[in-house]
Specification:
It contains seven helices and nine strands, in the order H-H-H-H-H-E-H-E-E-E-E-E-E-H-E-E. The chain has about 250 residues and is an alpha+beta fold. Helix 4 runs antiparallel to helix 5 and helix 5 packs across helix 7.
Amino acid sequence: MEKNLETNIKDIISSKMEEGIVEEIITKEFESSIRSATDQLFNRYGGITSIIEKKIKSVMVPYLENYDYSEYIVKLDAVLVDILKNSTVDNKEIIKNFKHLVDYERKSTINATDLFEEWMKYVAENVETHGLDVYFEDSPHYESVEVNYYVEYNEERSWSSHKSAVIIFECEHDEEMNFEVRIHRWDHNKKNEWTLDYEGIRDLTSLKRLNSFQILLMQLSQDYTSIILDLDSDSSEVEPDAEPEASFS
């Protein structure tokens, strides 16, 4: 009985081998083994993936660093405007400030007195009018507020080639308008050009809390615009943009 069973098995194997079944099975298993080995080589720890990553980085990183994204900024601006129409108040402020941040004419240098002028525009738009007198010559308007700017130089060690200072913009009537802008320079810079130390925002949501003058400082800082201290101090008067409400007494 056993002999007959063994003979039958041999006959079946011989028959299947003649039909090519065994070769087909071996081929499939061999292909499966190759796929498995290849998968292991290309997985996180197989070695080949890290080699490919290095090659991609060596090509892609320099390309991306030198790519001109200006046309995409224009497209992004259009997308943001569309989003702006359907956003909450907070998001609208974020997008408006982002638009101001990217829509900017770059400058290599700016005088401290020009920065003072930009700050005075911010004061005119935002200064608190409570407590100000109202004048009626020609048309009703608030009295002007006195503003000042001056540079405070930090005391440095005699041997240090690094110099630092603070530009102070001050409005006595409304302390909310006041700003301190930190700057620094190196002695080898003979043009009296100073570098702005302003970090700005750390995340996108911070954009909603920025005012127009802070955005300008961010733009100047990101573009490495040099500050030229053409004057160490100056003063002026700013008339608020706000108009007094009509009073019938």
